[in-house]
Each structure stands twice: as C-alpha cells, then as structure tokens.
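Please fill in the sequence for the structure shown.

STRUCTURE ENCODING:
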C-alpha cells in the first residue's frame, strides 16, 4: 500500500466512555476512518502510525442523523467507525503521559 494513502485512512480516535472501557477490558481501540477504507488498509495504517501489532479489525458504517433547526431540515453525513483489537503486549497511549 502507498504510505500517503495509509496516512489518510485514520481520521481521528473516538475517545468516549464506551471506547475507554473497550480499551481497558479487551485491548480494543475505536477510530473514525475514511469511508472508502478497507480492513487491510485500516490494519496497516494503525500498525504504521502507532507501531503496534493488530490482531483484528471490525468496521461499522454509522448513518448520519437527521437534524432540524427552525424551518430548515438537514442531515449529518455518514461515516465509518473501526474497532481495532491489538495483540497481547501491544498498547496505544493517546494521552502521551
């Protein structure tokens, strides 16, 4: 894979209460990824950027919500979420402490 492409696959980590529990209990981390990213690309991107070994990747397409403000209706865009499970002994530290 092209390194430029891999650097654009991961958009942001999703740091929520649920993702923190997944990280602690199952060594699994959640990322917002590009909509056209595949599982092998996500795996390679995480291994390249964080220098860890990835065990498994699961993806979820999240539908955007319909929102309304006064008389204007709109819709948030759809996005893709990836659950990345790391091999034992690997860890990602987002806080950098």
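FILLED IN BY: designer on duty
SEQUENCE:
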């Amino acid at each position: 894979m092209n390194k430029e492409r891999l650097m654009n696959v991961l958009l942001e980590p999703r740091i929520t209460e649920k993702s923190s529990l997944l990280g602690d209990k199952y060594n699994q981390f959640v990322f917002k990824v590009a909509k056209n990213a595949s599982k092998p690309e996500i795996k390679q991107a995480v291994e390249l950027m964080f220098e860890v070994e990835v065990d498994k990747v699961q993806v979820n397409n999240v539908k955007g919500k319909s929102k309304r403000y006064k008389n204007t209706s709109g819709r948030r865009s759809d996005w893709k979420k990836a659950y990345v499970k790391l091999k034992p002994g690997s860890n990602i530290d987002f806080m950098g402490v």
